[in-house]
Design brief:
The complex is a heterodimer of chains A (111) and B (117). With 111 residues, chain A is an all-beta fold. Helix content of chain A is 0%, strand content 51%. In chain A, the strands form two sheets. In chain A, strands 2, 4, 5, 6, 9, 10 and 11 form a seven-stranded mixed beta sheet that branches. A four-stranded antiparallel beta sheet of chain A has the order 1-3-8-7, with no helix packed on it. Chain B is mostly beta strands and 117 residues long. Chain B contains no helices and twelve strands. Chain B has strands at residues 3-5, 10-14, 19-21, 24-26, 32-39, 46-52, 59-61, 64-69, 74-79, 88-96, 106-107, 111-116. Classes of the chains: A mainly beta (111), B mainly beta (117). The interface between A and B is medium-sized, with 32 and 27 residues.
């Protein structure tokens, strides 16, 4: 049973560019959450998608947006990239309060 | 607002020593969940335990044990007879309890544990 799959694993972008990160949830999970983890810090909640709608949002600017597809997979989009957006982006899927399963993340470097 | 504090940034021990990782939390919710995750260098967060705020029983799983004390808002994690493979960053996290499928997790800053041979 595949866990949470994220792509790409690594990415280098230039300031001002836009990026799209992808997440396939664990089989049977219907909720996808995204977290940003800066180097040496704990993950910070970006937003959560359920039934193709954004259900909760953390303290992140509108440059961060997302989408959930009918098959429950999800995308995270970041526009107008800043150097400070460099981080590990983690996707987590869940079905109930027991089931937060994390992917290995996408390492984004903005230069 | 919810907050999780892991005061120990780094801990270094020698193999076979016992080590305790501290976690203190703040929340206004009466019902909540507490978690511990392990993050190896690969980056994936590995689930270790979830504890409901109404269940203050301590739990033991092999070499791992957890001490939940609601009176002091602490949820400490002890590794007995540590091994080199335990080296990782450990995160304590808190979430509100909701009826739907999952709520946001609030993480601490993490504790880097290094177990030396």
């Amino acid at each position: 049973d595949a866990g949470v799959t994220q792509s790409p694993t690594h990415l280098i972008k230039t300031r001002g560019q836009q990026v799209t990160l992808r997440c396939s949830p664990k089989s049977g999970h219907d909720t996808v959450s995204w977290y940003q983890q800066a180097l040496g810090q704990g993950p910070q909640f970006i937003f959560q998608y359920y039934e193709e709608e954004e259900r909760q949002r953390g303290n992140f600017p509108d440059r961060f947006s997302g989408h959930q597809f009918p098959n429950y997979s999800s995308e995270l989009n970041v526009n107008a990239l800043l150097l400070g957006d460099s981080a590990l982006y983690l996707c987590a899927s869940s079905l109930d309060l027991n089931g937060y399963t994390f992917g290995s993340g996408t390492r984004l470097t903005v230069v | 607002a919810q907050k999780v504090t892991q005061a120990q940034t780094e801990i270094s021990v020698v193999e076979k020593e016992d080590v305790t990782l501290d976690c203190v939390y703040e929340t206004r919710d009466t019902t909540y969940y507490l978690f511990w995750y392990k993050q190896p260098p690969s980056g994936e967060l590995v689930f270790l335990i979830r504890r409901n705020s109404f269940d203050e029983q301590n739990e033991i799983s092999g070499r791992y044990s957890w001490n939940f004390q609601k009176s002091t808002s602490s949820f400490n994690f002890t590794i007995t007879a540590s091994q080199v493979v335990d080296s990782a960053v450990y995160f304590c996290a808190l979430s509100e309890a909701v009826e739907t499928s999952g709520s946001r997790l609030t993480f601490g800053e993490g504790t880097q544990l290094t177990v030396n041979p």
